[in-house]
Amino acid sequence: MSYFSILKRESGNRNHIFKYTETAKVFSHCINDIIKNLMKKVSIQGIKGSFHEDAALKYFNNEEVEIVECRTFKQAVELVDKDEVEICVMAIENSIAGSLLGNYSLMRQYHLKIVGEVYLHIEMNLLMNPGAKKEDIKEVHSHPIALKQCMEYIERECPEAILLEKSDTAGAAKALEDSQRTDVATIGNKRTSELYHLEIREKGIETNKQNYTRFLVLTKHSEAPQDNNKTSICFECGHFHGSLANVLKIFSEHQINLTKIQSIPILGKPEEYSFHVDLEYDHQEQYEKAIHKVLKNVSSLSVLGEYKKGEMPK
User: Tell me, which fold does domain 38-121 have in CATH?
Assistant: First the structure.
């Protein structure tokens, strides 16, 4: 039933007496739905309180966005592919745990374009239910990347604890709150502890305090911004001596900084790889000239996105 038909029905009730309060509620729901429909829909792997949500909110700053929670990275990118959401924010690398190789494959499989990036400083905390004691910990539940980032602490402080991998940090925190177990700890950020009413037993338990995660902002339809100064490409080159070196030399000759090189095995082609490379440059002309020359030295090349580089948190 439409909002206007509801209004007509309500205004006709009780001898045509206008029911202000009920009609006001209808208008309120109408306005809320309109605002929600105008907001960008952003898919993330994880739930409210996850680092992915933090990254999405940071990237869009004060802009109102609707966060769509997904169980897996694949589900998050599929929503973009189906035009059910406009944007996907997806982790691609961590300064301690390294690259998420599967996410590189997802980008190419679904032909998504990078339109931005955002860096988060990751602080991990040991979280438990109220009243629970650290010495009673028998299990630690969290995302495998979070567990890996805190392994030195866990092995030192909870050497007998069983480690159970979960789909995301916030989901593990919510499950812990629901269970009310006092012999289980989880790992997460401060906002997660507040959302799911957990207490921080120890702050900053990550192995390396210079712990950053880079997230990519992905979409299906994009146009490169005018002020872009970073590009992500993927290329394949011949399987012979010096083929990769020849490509890298071209970028050096054009004063282009390679901030990342990631090799990914090519399915069905043993000992052959595709190379994902991030390029930073001061002038668009530098980049265009370099790419023109590179095209003559590779068997294939895809531009995954041209965008403005994200700022590293201080």
Answer: D-Maltodextrin-Binding Protein; domain 2 (3.40.190)
